[in-house]
From TrEMBL:
The keyword Ribonucleoprotein does not apply. It comes from Deinococcus deserti (strain DSM 17065 / CIP 109153 / LMG 22923 / VCD115). Keywords: Plasmid. Residues 33-159 form the GAF domain. The keyword Lyase does not apply. This is Putative GAF domain-containing protein. The lineage of its organism: Bacteria, Thermotogati, Deinococcota, Deinococci, Deinococcales. It holds the Pfam family GAF.
């Protein structure tokens, strides 16, 4: 087996172990996470905002606004593409994206047209996403994804603190917005 495939398999195994250790899947909704998605939906003016975690088989929705869905197979998830990078993913028009144009969330009853998400990274592993959706396309130029990144960092800090000491107060990392270079 080539080393890159072996390394990827080992990395995925370690990611899933961390996800299990943090006890994020199959848990009740929590007001602290609900407040984040409620705020994101209002700030971005979108009907749907989620905090999700993905294991090898499914996407578990920890917090949601605008949908009652609590889980789905990873293969039906748009958030799976966000976990491919440490950077936020913005898809201005899902009907124009090669990964999503024939996806059931785009062509089916949901008729989603816009997606933006940032990975939740704990100890170097992408465990899930903070994301927003809309039923109309958006311009990528009009979206400041730095707030999504900031919220993903807050969720990651909360997870890390809880996994290390469930009774400890949570402290958040210092966030610096990207500087526009002239």
């Amino acid at each position: 087996m080539p080393s890159s495939i072996t390394n990827a398999a080992v990395h995925e195994e370690q990611r899933l172990t961390l996800l299990e250790r943090c006890r994020l899947m199959n848990t009740a909704q929590e007001r602290s996470y609900d407040l984040i998605v409620e705020g994101l939906a209002r700030l971005y003016g979108v009907p749907i905002a989620l905090i999700t975690f993905l294991d090898g088989q499914r996407q578990f929705i920890k917090a949601n606004v605008g949908t009652d869905v609590r889980e789905m197979p990873v293969t039906e998830s748009l958030c799976q593409y966000t976990l491919e990078s440490d950077s936020p993913l913005v898809l201005p028009d899902l009907t124009q994206d090669w990964r999503c144009h024939s996806h059931s969330l785009v062509t089916g009853d949901e008729e989603l047209r816009f997606y933006a998400g940032a990975p939740i990274i704990v100890d170097g592993y992408r465990l899930g996403t903070v994301c927003i959706f809309d039923r109309v396309p958006h311009s990528a130029n009009d979206l400041d994804a730095s707030l999504l990144v900031h919220m993903a960092m807050m969720v990651a800090a909360t997870i890390k603190a809880r996994s290390e000491n469930p009774r400890a107060p949570v402290s958040y990392p210092r966030y610096r917005a990207p500087q526009n270079e002239a």
